[in-house]
Automatic annotation (TrEMBL):
InterPro entries: GCP (IPR007259), GCP_C (IPR040457), GCP_C_sf (IPR042241), GCP_N (IPR041470). The lineage of its organism: Eukaryota, Sar, Stramenopiles, Oomycota, Saprolegniomycetes. This is Spindle pole body component. Residues 587-728 form the Gamma tubulin complex component C-terminal domain. GO terms for molecular function: gamma-tubulin binding; microtubule minus-end binding.
């Protein structure tokens, strides 16, 4: 019987020891004695004594199957790839544990058989030492059931990456010594995988993560960041992940210095040989490494990269530091800005007025900068070829594209077409799409991507889903239900981290190969005369979709005015778009003229894309004020034809807008810029310079109220009223002016803009106009 018992300890059943199955799930749950063939010498007490030992054999079989199972998936090329390095680490740890267990069982069997032979040779008789087995296998009887539960949890939840680490770490401080030591050993092996990933990233500055487990990821195009969903935050601080990201980015620049590679390898090797995880030790080691690399990086970026000179150049252009230069630009472009911009306006301005003015003033800057004119309305007709204002994204190189038409393919591959120009939405817009549809099911989506204004969004090749965390989409699905009838299903999707279906309708229409989709977004008055924003869609002049939604409140990026949106179409094969237009009413179609700057590497580590977006928003505000001040100053030529009230109104408007401009440029930009430059010149440490620059950009946005919706709206209203006055100086706008200025003062009173309020109302003149005490 002892032979079968030792076979059972190694997961092999026989006649005496059999498998116990769950009748409902038809799976093995343990090993038991077969009651039909059990020896008479085994009492009920013996069976109860041996049952934990038999369960140990079942656990061995379960763990052995898991450790030998190919933890693989089939990729697109047909080859097999492991789908989790951390699960593979657990498998290897279990395999080593089982090897030690097998040796232990073999040694135990040898000793027991030798003892039995000695007893038989002495003819003394004796009992089989069951209690001795319990004592010898007490460690495995604790750890193996624990490992089985661990394996079951991993397989059931399909854990990988950080979830495996957190699962092991949860048992690192178990009250059972054997389980605690086992968990620490497994966790140390899993951490070696983490250290290898860290070393790969920190030394080579390349992201090699085929299974999506490392916390450094490239969610956006060519933009690496820390994915907190992959960081084991239960014991791994997010600051550690930021340090690792920074070191990897820095090594892209410091590749010619091998000493940094050696330091990284030395630090990670010393951490990997630790038997237990010590957060404070890891944090101190990586922080000291970051300080060392930050100092070398600062020398390369700040000093050799001439960051201070670039920063002065940014002030010159983005913050209108050279007043004479921009006065000349405004003066020379003023006749052009009377008409709305067209497709060639940007090129004409850059090759004409902008470049000639740059040559005339000979500004000393380390970079070249050009004007950017985002068209806020466009019309594309007869799309047999892709015009310069549109860009195709998402189609593989072998996909056949004819105009705005994606040819049939297997499997179907969607085609995304985006307008190159960023759209800044306000109140209403209208888009018209004229397309041809085949006699088969197909679909097209009108998409507004709101994640950022500096990256054209991408499209998932396997579906019409966008690789973006924030977008609004109107999806139109065409299904032929009868020979002359088509069902159009319209769906409104809103995605902010999670995709949500807002509204869905279905409409039956008479089939026609030519389909016109008219999308209206705007406001209507309800019975109580309140404005209600929403979507209205007409297909073939029939209203097919209507849904209330205020984009400015639903989409955070729009409500805070942190950027515009990219407007695009995503279509499946078979749809042929012939015409596409996008129209919206703007009181000033040139309001979003910006600057375009190519930042040379490695300066993007400091002059990030988000910082350039903020600088562009500052340029929008300052350049608009510069233009309207110039226009108001030009109205003096008509002063003889103006009434005294109009002349006084002109001076009042000039007083408000000129003081706003002075506050922005002198009270905010100059003060904070001089302080930032003075501090940056004292140090070459990268982290310090980056913190100073980030604080400077944040101060601009805060003190100029770039993203304070109420303040920006109040300023916009005054600028719009000033343009109305310039168009018709004889218009009686005194009442409207008082409303606008009262709105601005009320809004500023609820902010910390004490300096601006004092500058606007330094002598109590505005307070007297408003009828309030200063």
């Amino acid at each position: 019987m002892h032979h079968e018992l030792f076979f059972a300890l190694l997961g092999v059943c026989g006649e005496l020891i059999v498998e116990k199955r769950d009748p409902q799930k038809n799976i093995v749950t343990s090993f038991v004695f077969d009651s039909n063939v059990s020896p008479a010498m085994l009492t009920d007490g013996d069976r109860q004594l041996l049952q934990p030992i038999l369960h140990l054999g079942y656990c061995y079989r379960r763990l052995s199957l898991f450790s030998r199972s190919p933890c693989t998936v089939v990729n697109s090329s047909g080859s097999y790839m492991s789908n989790s390095l951390y699960v593979h680490s657990v498998q290897q740890s279990i395999a080593k544990t089982l090897v030690a267990y097998e040796a232990h069982v073999a040694s135990l069997e040898q000793r027991i058989l030798a003892s039995a032979m000695e007893i038989n040779s002495n003819h003394s008789g004796g009992l089989f030492p069951f209690s001795h087995l319990l004592v010898e296998l007490r460690a495995e009887m604790e750890t193996f059931p624990f490992l089985c539960r661990l394996v079951e949890h991993i397989e059931k939840k399909k854990l990988h990456g950080k979830w495996v680490l957190e699962l092991l770490q949860a048992h690192e401080n178990s009250g059972f010594p054997e389980i605690r030591e086992c968990a620490r050993l497994f966790l140390a092996n899993a951490h070696r995988v983490l250290y290898r990933q860290m070393m790969s990233w920190m030394t080579t500055a390349e992201l090699i993560d085929p299974f999506g487990e490392f916390f450094v990821s490239s969610a956006k195009q060519n933009e690496l960041s820390v994915d907190l969903t992959r960081v084991p935050l239960r014991y791994f601080p997010s600051s550690l992940a930021e340090d690792i990201l920074f070191i990897g980015k820095a090594m892209k620049i410091l590749t010619d210095d091998p000493s940094h590679h050696q330091d990284i390898c030395r630090v990670l090797h010393s951490l990997s040989v630790q038997t237990s995880w010590n957060t404070h030790l890891v944090q101190e080691s990586l922080e000291s490494l970051r300080v060392q690399i930050a100092s070398a990086l600062g020398q390369r970026v700040v000093v050799q990269g001439q960051f201070i000179k670039w920063l002065r150049g940014i002030k010159t252009f983005y913050l209108l530091g050279e007043g004479d230069f921009f006065h000349a630009v405004v003066e020379r472009t003023f006749p052009i800005f009377v008409q709305p911009p067209v497709q060639r306006s940007e090129g004409d301005l850059n090759h004409g007025i902008w470049s000639s003015t740059l040559r005339e003033y000979q500004l000393d800057t380390p970079f070249s900068v050009s004007l950017q004119v985002p068209l806020q309305s466009f019309v594309y007709k007869h799309l047999h070829e892709i015009p310069a204002g549109l860009v195709l994204v998402g189609a593989p190189p072998d996909t056949q594209v004819s105009g705005l038409q994606c040819m049939p393919s297997s499997p179907p591959v969607p085609l995304a077409c985006w307008c190159r120009h960023v759209q800044y939405l306000s109140r209403s817009f209208q888009s018209c799409i004229l397309l041809k549809t085949p006699l088969e099911q197909t679909e097209i989506s009108f998409v507004m991507q709101t994640e950022g204004v500096h990256v054209i969004p991408t499209c998932d090749k396997a579906s019409v889903n966008l690789n973006s965390q924030s977008f609004v989409a109107l999806q139109f699905q065409f299904t032929i239900v009868r020979e002359s009838t088509v069902q159009v299903t319209a769906r409104l999707w809103l995605t902010q981290v999670e995709k949500r279906l807002v509204h869905e309708t279905s409409t039956l229409l008479k089939y026609s190969p030519d389909v016109e989709i008219l999308i209206d977004y705007g406001a209507t008055k309800d019975k109580e005369k309140r404005l209600q924003y929403g979507w209205r869609v007409h297909i073939q002049e029939k209203r097919c979709f209507e849904c209330p939604m205020n984009l400015l409140t639903e989409v955070e990026v729009l409500s805070s005015r942190k950027g515009g949106v990219h407007v695009g179409l995503v279509l499946l094969p078979g749809v042929n778009v012939e015409n596409w237009s996008f129209q919206k009413h703007d009181e000033d179609p040139w309001a979003y003229v910006g600057l375009q700057l190519e930042v040379k590497w490695p300066l993007p580590l400091l002059l990030t894309s988000s910082a350039l977006v903020t600088y562009n928003h500052m340029f929008h505000m300052l350049f608009r004020l510069k233009r309207i001040l110039y226009a108001l100053n030009q109205t003096w030529k008509q002063s003889r034809e103006m009434s005294a009230a109009s002349c006084l109104l002109r001076h009042d408007i000039l007083h408000v807008l000129s003081n706003l401009f002075l506050y922005y440029q002198m009270g905010v930009v100059d003060v904070n810029f001089n302080q930032c430059v003075a501090e940056c010149e004292k140090t070459a440490d990268f982290d310090v310079v980056k913190r100073l620059h980030d604080n400077f950009v944040a101060s601009l946005a805060k003190k100029c109220y770039l993203y304070a919706t109420t303040v920006v709206h109040a300023v916009d209203q005054i600028i719009a009223m000033a343009w109305s006055f310039c168009m018709d100086p004889s218009a009686m706008l005194q009442i409207e002016y008082r409303k606008r200025i009262d709105c601005l003062c009320t809004v500023l009173a609820n902010t910390d803009a004490r300096e601006l309020v004092i500058q606007l109302d330094y002598n109590g003149y505005i307070s007297e106009q408003r009828g309030v005490s200063p």
